[in-house]
Amino acid sequence: MLNGFRRLAVAATVAGSMLVGGIGGAALYATTLAAQAASPSPSPSSSSGSSATTPGKFVPNENPAHEAGESAAREAQENAGQFPTVP
User: Fold this and answer.
1) What does each C-alpha distance from 18 to 28, 35, 53, 78, 80 come to in angstroms?
2) Contact yes or no for 60/79 (Cβ under 8 A)
């Protein structure tokens, strides 16, 4: 009789903890989704803090240290506003 009562108590404890955990997890998930939906998504121009450019437009790196290692073909592509395809 005592052995059957222990099994029932353990089963009830496991079932109760699963129920409480499931409800808690669902509530946490719902609040996370609500918070994501409420927060505005950043615009592409404001996310990096750099100058606002049109997405997809190439902006060359005119840093003197970078320019020193560039080939003439790459510089010509950059000056033409193309994404460089040569090193």
Assistant:
1) 15, 25, 51, 60, 63
2) yes
